[in-house]
Amino acid sequence: MSQGVRQVRVDVQPDAGPGWARLVLSGAGGPETPDRQSVRMSLQRNQDGRFLDERSGWSASEVWHVPHDVTQSGADLILRIGPELVDELLADPRTVCRIQVQAQGDSWAGVLRMGQGIYPSGAAGQSPAAARQIQPPAQDVQEPATVAPPEETEGKEPFVAIRPDPPRREPAMRKMPILLLLLLLALLGLAIAWYAGLLDRWLKEPVVGQQTAAVEGEQPTGLATAPGPCSLQAMRDQTDDLAFLQKCVQDSPDTDLVMAIIQAGKDAGRCDLIQRLYAHQAQAGNARIALAYAREFDPQTFEGGCFEQADGQTAIYWYEKSLQLDPDQNTVAERVKQLKKDLEAVQ
Question: Does the keyword section mention Transmembrane (predicted)?
């Protein structure tokens, strides 16, 4: 009988059809396949620590489930699960779940790693990417403008525009004395200002418009002031997090803009938005975002806020995701090794 909970890799693979999947626990196999009724498992999502219950909801109390089937393949233990679990696991692409499995005195735990080709039960014939991706909002279709037919002119006299006579121009010589007088007054004013020392001061003081432009130039460009569906201003204007996220990801924002929106979301307490944005961008292949997401859970860099507690397993998951996208991160690889050692030490 093993002592403590052993951390293992848990891969979620497609099974017979929509709504079914296999949980493959690497290295959890034994000399004999455990009886199905002796195996139980609990699923806990990371964002709030709640457990998946028998009604496909999330409960504050731990809930245990029995798999539909238990098999072994080499050193791996395989648990078959059905729509009552699969559908909820696919409902939100940002959800990261930990699983704990108990069987005949042994106990294993790990983070679910969702594979490709897993369908929800209601998506028969639909690709998994289409089932989980953020759907773009419907765009308004404008009716084509109609052009009124020309009026019939038969029997009518044609309209002729009559141009008025151009205004008479006064001889330029009559305006010369006025212009000379204005010029002399301007020169006299400058002379008086120079004598009083005001001219030098005026030349040194910046124009008010230039001062405003200088201050505005210190603000981040392309974020708060730039128009667009994925800007800080758009985030402040749109209180519906999902609606903003749908439009934002369609705009293909760069990494700096995504990080700026995440920071602004933290400051505004919009935790649901930033976690969705983190997960979407990391899963979409952004190594920097995956790395930043991992640090939110890493006990060494954990700050709290929108994240209730540090979680080494979840940090490892997103660190490894970042490494898959950008393998040349030696510091990150070393941190993953250290986290795994720390987890083994507490078992």
Answer: yes
